[in-house]
Each structure stands twice: as C-alpha cells, then as structure tokens.
C-alpha cells in the first residue's frame, strides 16, 4: 500500500460470488478493476459459507500475484480457532499477502461460534503476536456499531482495537459526510491516530437502495432519501443520480484530505470505472504531511 498520509488512496472491495458462472466473471471483474490502478483490492469473507481458502484467499492470491495489486483478505474472528489461524497465516505468508482486514463477523444462523476470538481485537493481537509484519486493517462505524450501547463505548473499543495492532481503519458505508467528519474528530479526541479510510457505496439500482433503507443504521440525509424517492421507478435515472451522489461524496472527502476512499463495488467494474474516470485527477493531488 502507498503511504496513506501522502495522497488519498483509492481502493475497491469485491466479494466472492456464490455461483460457478459468476466465479469466472469475477476474474474478469478483477482484471478490469486492476486497470483502474487501485492502491489495493479487498476480498470479503463469509461466516455463512466458511470457505475462506477456496474463495477469499483464491481471489486475493489472484489480485496479489497475477495482477500485482496489493490484496487484502477479510478474515473473520468468530468461527476460527488458533490452529486454523496459524495455518491461514502460513498460507498468506507463502502467497505474499501482507494485508488482513480483521473483523469479528456476525453469527451464522444455527452455528455456534468458536471461543478463541470473541472480538476483532482478540484476533488482531494474536496475529501481531505471531508476525508483526502483517498489516492489520479493521472495521469502524461512523454512526457506531449497531450493538454498541453508546458512542463512547464504541470509541473506547475502537481504541482497544488500535492498541491490539490495527494499523488502519475502514469505515462502514455512510451517506452523510458530516457524520464521517464528526467521527474523525471523535477519533482524534480519543487519540486514535491511524488512517481512516472512508467506505463509499454507490447506489445504482432499486434493490440496493431498498436494502440500504431496510438494513442500514445509517442516518440518511434528506437529499439522499429524496433521490431514492424521486428516481426509484426509473432504473436509468436512479443509477445516474446514485453515481452522481457517490462522486459528490468522494469529491468532498478528498477535498478534505481523507486518508483514502474504499469503494464497495458490489463486483460491478463498470460502476468503479465510471467513478474512477470522474474522480481520478483528485487522487493525484498530494496531501500536506
Ligand atoms: P468488533 O470490533 O469485535 O466489535 C463488535 C461490537 O463489539 C461493537 O459494538 C464493539 O463496540 C464491541 N466490542 C469490541 N470489543 C469489545 C470488547 N473487548 N468488549 C466488549 N465489547 C466490545 N463481515 C463479514 O462477515 N465478512 C466481511 O468480509 C466483512 N467485512 C467488513 C468490512 C468493513 C469495512 C466493515 C465496516 C464491516 C465488515 N463486516 C464483515 C461486518 C462486521 O463483521 C460486522 O459489522 C460485525 O458485527 C462487527 O465486526 P467488527 O470487526 O467491527 O467487530
């Protein structure tokens, strides 16, 4: 990864597809994302499938070794024990993958979690104790994690995460930059000084919009909900408005010298390309150190 303090980084998240057809397509998607010269590409993992080696690791290997782009594996804490983690660390080292986004993960229905790592910070500390050369990324939530009783305890646990070895934080998606700036300030007040990378989700279809409205704990700005209301029955207009919204968010974030922008691509390279074309000149400007 490049020095995050020097310039705002631009990176992508992809997820391993469920079906074999999409399995072929994902490599094409990754090839297309590579052309956009990202600082890194992260690959999610799932507690439902628990198929880390055959999905997340396989794609991250392709990113890292075929495309020569730094690959980041998402590694969940809840369903692994120490022995399994040891094996995964050996594989990561063998493949030259240095970047691990450690998350706790949510409970998979009907499957009890393992006991070794309760929270992301437990796994972070374990990995760092095994090999301090791994670069550990962690998750953070500008509007607090939904399970947190209040913002103070959430920030307190975030500080523990950084103390456990987290080198960089990636945010949950948000649609109000003001909320992000407030969170950034709260982190600074709590002496959390690692780079905060902003997670941006471009809304490009109705299903995605409804999902965000239903699932999200985010505070949704009026201009965002107005956009969804206005264009929800017209796919072309909704996509145009959603892309413009994400580009506006990114422009404002980079103007305000964000450490980085991480695009939740939903495996749509055309969406990433559109946003890249519209914003690439912003990412060449150096931030003051
Ligand atoms: P934690 O840091 O463990 O925090 C979870 C909750 O526990 C928070 O409320 C926190 O305040 C609290 N807490 C933390 N430490 C302590 C402690 N010591 N004592 C008491 N309470 C504590 N999920 C996936 O399954 N796969 C993915 O690939 C994935 N990628 C993600 C990427 C990003 C950028 C983000 C933001 C989330 C991602 N998630 C993913 C979702 C994530 O797993 C869930 O949000 C999960 O509920 C919390 O994960 P965490 O790492 O933030 O957990």
From TrEMBL:
It catalyses: (6S)-5-methyl-5,6,7,8-tetrahydrofolate + NAD(+) = (6R)-5,10-methylene-5,6,7,8-tetrahydrofolate + NADH + H(+). The keyword Nucleotidyltransferase does not apply. Pathway: One-carbon metabolism; tetrahydrofolate interconversion; Amino-acid biosynthesis; L-methionine biosynthesis via de novo pathway. One of its GO terms (cellular component) is cytosol. GO terms for molecular function: FAD binding; methylenetetrahydrofolate reductase (NADH) activity. GO terms for biological process: methionine biosynthetic process; tetrahydrofolate interconversion. Belongs to the methylenetetrahydrofolate reductase family. This is Methylenetetrahydrofolate reductase. It comes from Liquorilactobacillus nagelii.
């Amino acid at each position: 990864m490049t020095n995050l303090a020097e310039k705002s980084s631009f990176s992508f998240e992809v997820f391993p597809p469920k079906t074999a057809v999409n399995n072929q397509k994902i490599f094409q998607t990754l090839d297309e994302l590579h052309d956009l010269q990202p600082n890194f590409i992260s690959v999610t993992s799932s507690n439902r499938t628990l198929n880390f080696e055959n999905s997340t690791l396989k794609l991250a290997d392709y990113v890292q070794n075929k495309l020569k782009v730094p690959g980041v594996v998402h590694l969940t804490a809840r369903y692994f024990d120490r022995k399994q983690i040891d094996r995964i660390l050996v594989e990561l080292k063998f493949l030259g993958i240095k970047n691990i986004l450690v998350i706790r993960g949510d409970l998979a229905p009907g499957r009890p979690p393992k006991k070794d790592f309760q929270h992301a910070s437990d796994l972070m500390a374990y990995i760092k104790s095994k090999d301090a050369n791994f670069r550990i990324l962690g998750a953070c939530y500008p509007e607090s994690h939904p399970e947190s009783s209040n913002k103070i305890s959430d920030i307190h646990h975030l500080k523990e995460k950084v103390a456990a070895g987290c080198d960089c934080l990636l945010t949950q998606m948000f649609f109000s930059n003001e909320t992000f700036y407030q969170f950034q300030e709260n982190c600074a007040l709590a002496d959390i000084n690692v780079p905060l990378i902003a997670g941006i989700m471009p809304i490009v279809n109705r299903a995605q919009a409804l999902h965000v409205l239903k699932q999200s704990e985010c505070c949704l700005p009026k201009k965002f909900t107005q956009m969804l209301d206005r264009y929800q029955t017209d796919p072309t207009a909704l996509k145009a408005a959603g892309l413009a919204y994400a580009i506006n968010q990114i422009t404002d974030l980079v103007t305000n010298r964000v450490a980085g922008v991480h695009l939740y691509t939903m495996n749509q390279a055309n969406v990433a390309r559109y946003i890249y074309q519209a914003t690439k000149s912003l990412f060449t400007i150096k931030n003051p150190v």
